[in-house]
From TrEMBL, chain A:
The chain crosses the membrane at residues 15-35, 40-59, 65-82, 94-117, 129-155, 176-193, 224-245, 251-271. Belongs to the ABC-3 integral membrane protein family. This is Metal ABC transporter permease. Its main location: membrane. It is found in: Cell membrane; Membrane. Keywords: Membrane, Transmembrane, Transmembrane helix, Transport. It comes from the Bacteria. CDD domains: TM_ABC_iron-siderophores_like (cd06550). It is a multi-pass membrane protein.
TrEMBL record, chain B:
Residues 6-242 form the ABC transporter domain. This is Metal ABC transporter ATP-binding protein. It comes from Geomonas anaerohicana. InterPro entries: AAA+_ATPase (IPR003593), ABC_transporter-like_ATP-bd (IPR003439), Metal_Ion_Import_ABC (IPR050153), P-loop_NTPase (IPR027417). PANTHER family: METAL TRANSPORT SYSTEM ATP-BINDING PROTEIN TM_0124-RELATED. Keywords: ATP-binding, Nucleotide-binding, Transport. Pfam families: ABC_tran. GO terms for molecular function: ATP binding. Belongs to the ABC transporter superfamily.
Length: 274, 250
């Protein structure tokens, strides 16, 4: 099968466009999350997404309506993680663990009580970008614009508080607001990424392009741009390869990302010790 | 120059029920260089954090550069240099140039974009501090001394009226420490920048600071070095040898 033939399919076009948009968001936010040691927030919010999907299926909401209905739940959970860490005097990882467990428990409980939608629910665990519809692509594009606009507007503040939160605060920056913006943007991105790699692998899409870029980047802007480039390239390769070889898309994307990370790591090691 | 750079009145602070600062009152004139000393746990860092609004006091009032803290917005007039970065990641992908530029954010309004003036201010500061040659280097690849110099440049990039430093030389070797102190002294003299320096190094600080604030949860001594050296009360507190050590360098 040649490239032209592959691109002639409407679902492939949508998958490549949607996947690329989502890859950019995950990679850019991933750099901030990884450097702030918040990498697993993606995992935690993904588990909440699992609970939310179960809830949406329980009320028989599908497709676009499902995506729209789970957004507020995931946003509220993201804020819950922040507030738990701030007010309940527990570390961020414990807060993520708590919210994550509640998300999974809700999903399993609803699946058990309702019965009948287990197959639907579990299909969200592994995602399938090839099945993205035109309306879902429109939502992805709209959320892409919102998240990217948020990152651009808060870029310097996010950079400052990622570099050192105390220094940022001593410069008069409202670091609480910056943290809130970051987790809300991450929550929106997680909802979108669910379609590409599935709930189980979302954190990989947030972490892997970022850590690969961090191996080779020579500056903060370079890290962000490289991560976005790696994210898009691996998603496009993953979608194409999975289509040609009939492999699961999410898993293929993640494994390609891991190979890229190994290459970046090797390149860094070789450059340091030629 | 009569403007008060800092005024602290009846300041009390504590953590989990134990009082760390008890009724602290003092004021600093613009252009002064104040060395803040005291034993471990004496509340030096807590006081600095309250001045920078990183911590809230239990009671008392603080005015910075003539403005009460609650209405203080001129963050670009304050430079802060901590002992080190809170959770420093040696692999953080930021260049020296990017780190120093972050210091300019405090002078900006949302969405806090940088412009040519910022680039010029960064260039000028790096030149003044003799670090232009490392502008493209990654912050994590620098030695401890150079990294502190870069963070000092970040604190100075706005030409602050008040420079606050919390044990900035702890991780430095004696030679680097001396050149660091000289640089701050020059800046205090040339730019009339008020300096608050928390340090354990009482002997060296005597050489550079104009005033000494000795804290031990409360103010044990605050005044000029001449006052300190002539104070028989301080002889009783420090011992003749301790007082002599500080005054000799002064």
């Amino acid at each position: 099968m040649n490239l032209n033939e592959m691109l002639s399919y409407g679902f492939m076009q949508r998958a490549l466009v949607g996947g690329s948009l989502i890859a950019i968001l995950c990679s850019v936010l991933g750099v901030f999350l990884v450097l702030r040691r918040l990498s697993l927030i993606g995992d935690g919010l993904a588990h909440v997404t699992f609970g939310s999907v179960a809830l949406a299926l329980f009320f028989r909401l599908h497709s676009v309506y499902m995506t729209l209905s789970i957004i507020p739940v995931v946003l509220a959970s993201a804020l819950g993680i922040l507030k738990l860490a701030q007010k309940a005097r527990i570390y961020g990882d414990a807060a993520i663990g708590m919210v994550s467990a509640i998300g999974i428990a809700t999903g399993v409980l609803l699946a058990s009580v309702a019965g009948g939608f287990n197959v639907d629910l579990f299909s969200y665990l592994f995602g399938n970008i090839l099945s993205i519809s035109s309306s879902e692509l429109c939502i992805a594009a709209a959320l892409f614009v919102i998240v990217i606009a948020g990152v651009i507007m808060f870029y310097n503040e996010l950079f400052a508080s990622t570099f050192d939160e105390e220094l940022a605060k001593s410069s008069g920056l409202n670091t609480d607001r910056i943290n809130t913006v970051l987790v809300l943007l991450t929550a929106l991105t997680v909802v979108l990424a669910m379609k590409v790699v599935g709930i189980m692998l979302i954190s990989a899409l947030l972490i892997l392009p970022a850590v690969s870029a961090l191996q080779i980047a020579k500056g903060f802007k370079t890290a962000i741009v490289s991560a976005a480039g790696i994210g898009v390239a691996t998603v496009i390769c993953g979608i194409s390869l999975s289509f040609v070889m009939n492999l699961p898309t999410g898993a293929t994307i993640v494994l390609i990302n891991f190979i890229v990370f190994l290459c970046a790591f090797a390149a860094r090691t070789l450059l340091r010790h030629p | 120059m009569n403007e008060k750079a800092l005024s602290v009145r009846n300041l009390c602070a504590g953590y989990h029920g134990s009082e760390v600062l008890q009724d602290i009152s003092f004021s600093v004139n613009a252009g002064d260089y104040v060395g803040i000393c005291g034993p471990n746990g004496s509340g030096k860092s807590t006081m600095i954090k309250i001045i920078l609004q990183l911590l809230a006091p239990t009671s008392g009032e603080v005015s910075v550069l003539g403005t009460p803290q609650a209405s203080f917005r001129d963050w670009h007039r304050i430079g802060y240099l901590p002992q080190g970065l809170q959770f420093f990641n040696p692999h953080f992908p930021a260049t020296v140039d990017e780190v120093i530029r972050l210091g300019r954010l405090s002078a900006k309004k949302f969405p806090r974009r940088f412009n040519r003036d910022d680039a010029w201010a960064v260039d000028r500061t790096m030149e003044w501090m003799g670090i232009s040659h490392i502008r493209g280097a990654m912050i994590g690849e620098l030695s401890g001394g150079l990294r502190q110099r870069v963070l000092l440049a970040r604190a100075l990039v706005n030409d602050p009226a008040l420079l606050v430093m919390d044990e900035p030389t702890t991780a430095l070797d004696p030679e680097t420490r001396e050149s660091f102190y000289k640089l701050i002294f020059e800046m205090n003299r040339e730019k009339q920048c008020t300096v608050l320096l928390v340090t354990h190094d009482t002997a060296t600080i005597g050489k550079y600071a104009s005033h000494l604030l000795y804290l031990d949860k409360k103010v044990v001594f605050y005044g000029s070095f001449d006052d300190f050296c002539n104070s028989s009360e301080m002889t009783g507190f420090f011992g003749e040898h301790g007082q002599h050590l500080v005054c000799h360098r002064h």
